[in-house]
Give the backbone structure.
Amino acid sequence: MNLNDSQVHLPVVVARNEEAVRRRFWAKLRASLASIPFAEDLVAAYYCTIDPQTPAKAKALLLAALAYFVLPADMLPDFIPGLGFTDDLAVIVAAVSMVREHMTPLHRQRAAQYLSQGSVAGSAAPTPR
């Protein structure tokens, strides 16, 4: 997938992905946290998507990757021990590497701070700043 691919940032696709991520991201993260070693990348990607300074194309690509994480249709079902999140990892790593220049140290700092709260499983979704 290319950042300039017009299908990545079609308004209807972006809106659908944004809605899915908004509704399901934090619950899926909390439910899966023990199984996913790439949680910090996921949360940093989320923060990048809600940052008004992030360009629309970068947001669209990250929203597509985050939607892949939260939506139930998956190449490898997440409940398969040891393999379930490998496809999600590949999608997130690819998306993050494509928009690396737009993911700021603040996005990563906020992700680390959220994950280090100690009670992530019961914590509410953080509010945008």
